[in-house]
Amino acid sequence: MAGGTLLPLRVPSYILRQSKHLRTQKSPLSILASVASPPSQCHSKAACRHIFSIQHRLVPVAPHGTYLVLPGVPCVPHRGLHLSQARREIVQFNLSDIGEGIKEVTVKEWFVKPGDTVAQFDNVCEVQSDKASVTITSKYDGVVTKLYYGVDDIAQTGDPLVDVEIEGSAAEPVEVDTTPEEEVEAPNERNVKVLAAPAVRRVAMEYGVNLADITGSGKEGRVLKEDIISHVSSKTPVPAPAHTAPVFTAAPPKAAPAPPKPAAPQPVRPPPAFLGKDKTEPASFMVKAMTKSMNEALKIPHFGYNDEIDMSQLVDLRKDLKAACLERGIKLSYMPFIVKACSMALLHFPILNSSLDTQAETITYKAGHNIGMAMDTPMGLMVPNIKGVQQLSVFDIQVELSRLHSLGLAGKLSTKDLSGGTFSLSNIGSIGGTYAKPVILAPEVAIGALGKIYTVPRYSPSGNLQPTHVMNVSWSADHRCIDGATMARFSNIWKGYLESPASMLLDMK
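Request: output the structure for the sequence above.
Response:
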């Protein structure tokens, strides 16, 4: 029987029906018997090869079984192709340090659940610290298998957030029989490990650039953002990133601005709560943050100074500019004028834009005017700041105020928005009241509280009684480095800019 091809006795009938060389009315055994007869040896050889080809493609050859040897048909040797089944391993995705000395956060929202597939940079969850709201993104490609925390649970830095099942190294190889014609040499794939920070990888994704094609100029060949920019600039055309900053342009004169949608009415006061018995609950992250800030503020000797500002000219100026700002898509308020006047006054008294280090006994004068704005958000008091006010126009300040206000209401203020402040203002007048006693936010040395704008009768320089728009301001300063005269002189310059807005044009740069 040497020199024959091994075929299983149990050949599925549908395989035999596929062959044009065989008759479907015959049974498999009778067909094989006729194939084995000497008069049709040439015909049976082609039929056997066809059966073998179809059977190999559709049904795997059994490793152990009964075989029939057909004479005259050469035996084709089988070769083994080793394939690897992907072995998946579960890794813990830990909460990394998000900066600013934050040790614990509150999980506010999950964007994934067990069984979901995630890729690198996909949003996993949103956490809230005592300083900011941060969105945590995935470091791995895989499937989420476990969530370690529920909503409103406290997570510590370094603790696991989720388990992710990822593809690991190869498992035991599986042998698959194949014919020589089916063997295909696998192409060589480039497997290069590129060193790059997550932020740099995100930039590469926005530009559609493969990091393996870029030569890094950083330490140990690390790819930097500058390397990506240089790489894409050498190509024509330069691909634009997926996300670009919004640009505000003036609308055509013919296009009328769309009427703003009416905002949902806010409750004047919260509904009364009737408690049948005492209730004890753990302090929230916001209460913990305020406790920490107030403990630091108690170490500062506060000095207070109050004044009244005539806002009549500023009221008229805002009325004149309001329509122009609406054409640009921005609603103009009084705050950008107040913030800009504050920055211009700080140029004359840089001591108010400084920080005091009692341990080192030094005073650091800040170059940038990062003026914070206290905001009443659904999560509590937040103080984001506008960076570099000394270099911004009144319109730019209003744009930034609108952005921070929207993020504050949505609870999406970032750590960058909430850190780095050098001077603060609190607009308590938006709720009501005229005077306040603001508390300094260390390491700053001064803060101002703005009252509401209201109309009162006042005498004009000519002695006539007329209605006047006034606003009260309350200043607090660190008396360890700022005296009363400095605070009063600063307030007078700031007051002069607001009472005569046209004078700001003389000192604007």
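The mean pLDDT is 75.
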